[in-house]
Design brief:
The protein is α/β, with parallel strands linked by helices and 343 residues long. 36% of the residues lie in helices and 17% in strands. The chain is built from 14 helices and 12 strands.
Amino acid sequence: MQRADAAALARLGQALGRSRRPAFVVGAAIDRDGAWEAIVRLAEMHGALVWASPLIGRCSFPEDHPLFAGFLPAFREAIRERLAGHDVVVAFGAQVFTYHAEGEGAYVPEGVAVYQVTEDPDWAASSVLGDAIVGGVGAAIEELLRVHPRDGAPAAQRGRTRAPRVPEADPVTEALLLQTLADLRAPDSIIVEEAPGTREPMHEHLPILKPNTFYTCSSGGLGHSLPAAVGIALARRGTRVIALLGDGSAMYSIQALWTAAQLRLPLTVVIVNNGGYAALKSFSRRFGLGDPVGTGLPGIDFVQIARGQGCEALRVTRAAELREALGTALSAGGPMLVDVHVT
C-alpha cells in the first residue's frame, strides 16, 4: 500500500492540532486495515466527534463510545446539517461524500476545512471539496498519532445520546426486536445486515462494539447479505454469524438457506417481516410519490420456506415469544431462521 505523503499529513496534523471542534467521518477501510484502536486513540487525542460514513459496508468505530456521534445520512442537506459547528472534518477511508440522491446548496457549512485520507485515487479525484491524501489509511492514522500529537487538551465534545429502552410489550416493533437481539448476542458475534428499511432503529438499538463484526452491502443492490453470511460463517468457523434481513431483501437469495443447512453452519437468520419493501416505500415518499405498486409482500411463509430447505425455523408474532425464540436460534448448533413479524 502506498504511503501517504508526509508533508500532506503534516498539514492535516497541524489543522487538527488547531481545531476546536474537529469531526471524523469513518469508512470501511479502517476496519479492513485493523485500525479500530488507532482511530479511537486519534479521536480521543483531539476530542473529535466520529460519524459513520453514509452507506458504510463495515463498522469502523465502537458505537457505544462517548465520541461516537451517529450515522451521516446519504443526502447533501442532512450531511451539511449534521456537520454544523465543526471547524475541521476529516474523512478517513470514506468518500467526500456518498449521496443517495441529488441535493442542493453547499456541501458543508461555511468555514469548515475538509480533508480526506483514502487508499482509492478515484475517491480522491471525485471529492467534491477539500484536500485529499492518498495512501494507506491505517498507516496514516498511526503516523498522525506518532508524529503529530496535539499540544493542548482535546476538544470538549460529546457524541450522541443513547436511545431509551423500549418496553417488552406488544406489538413487536423493529426497535424491540433489535434491542432484544443486542441483549442476547455475544459482542463478538458477526452481524451481516440487509434490512435497509430497518437501518434507523438498528443504529439506535443494535450497537456494533468490536472490529470485524459487521458487514453489509455498501451499494443499493439487494440479495447480497444472506449468501454473504454463509460465506462469512464458512470463513469464521466457531463464531456465531447473524444474518439480519428484511423480508423483501431475503427473497432475492433465499436459496442460500439450503447451503447453510447442508453445511450445518452456526448461522442465525432473523427476518424483519414488515410485509413489504419498506425501504422503497420510504424512499418514494421522500420524493412525494406515495407507495409504489408492487411493494407489498403479504402471505410469504418464511418458516415453511426454511424448513423446505432443511433449515429449522420459528415464527414470532408476540413480544412474549421474542426473547426465547432468539435465544434458541443463537444457541443452535446449525442454521435456524426466526421470522419476526413487526409492526
